[in-house]
Amino acid sequence: MEKIVPAAPDFSIYTLVINADPVVKGVLILLVLASVACWAVILEKVIRLIKLRSELRHLREAESDFTRPLAKQILAAGEVELEEGNVRGEPRGELCDRVERAMRASLKMELHRLEFGLPFLATVGSTAPFVGLFGTVWGIVNSFTSIAQQKDTSLAVVAPGIAEALIATALGLAAAIPAVIAYNQIIVALGRASARANTSITEIAKRLSRRQAEPVLRTIVETVRAGRHG
């Protein structure tokens, strides 16, 4: 007669998650959703940063191309102040400052739009490890409870709760680490983009504030004005 060998306990991640305590399941689902949302925000920011770099490259080449949306938006803001300053007969220095402030404000507004979603990354990066830690503590409590109830310290009794705890910890870190890295990189990228754009804006404001506008800039201003009133 053959001896029946009992099947080994199934400690696969799938089985552990399916059989986990409802609280631990809730923690795992919350962390998975947070991680998915973070990657969606990260992907959206990467695409928009690539587009922003392209827009700012055209802004630096203002003498040849002011047809891109961001460049037109910034120039339109400066052109409005240029007209008002000319009506008031302001000296060139004050006119230049007025135009530059308006163009910087327009740029800042666009950069603020790009910052949407970054607080979420920061929140996930700072709280996800603690949410995972909560799941860890709960899983360990379940392990000790199982030991007390069954009066058994075998691996089959202790392992599931400990494994649940480790999965919650790992998932918390998996959600937090990309969020923190992406947040820092995006903030740095926006800062560099702002610095480059402000340098270009300073030069453009000086050119716009000249008493006799250069032919190319006159054409640009007329194009923007026609677009605004058309």
What does this structure look like?
It contains seven helices and no strands. α3 (69-88) packs antiparallel against α4 and α3 (69-88) packs across α7. The chain has one domain. 83% of the residues lie in helices and 0% in strands. Mean pLDDT is 77; it is low at 1-7 and 211-216. It is rod-shaped and about 90 Å long. With 230 residues, it is mainly α.
> Helix segment count?
7
Order of helices and strands: HHHHHHH
Low-confidence stretches: 1-7, 211-216
The backbone outline, from C-alpha atoms, is rod-shaped
Give the termini separation. Answer: 95 Å
Rg over CA atoms: 29 Å
Report the mean per-residue pLDDT as an integer: 77
The major sheet is characterized as: none
Query: What structural category do the secondary elements indicate?
Result: mainly alpha
Strand content: under 5%
Oligomer: single chain
Helix content: over 70%
How many beta-strand runs? 0
State the domain count: 1
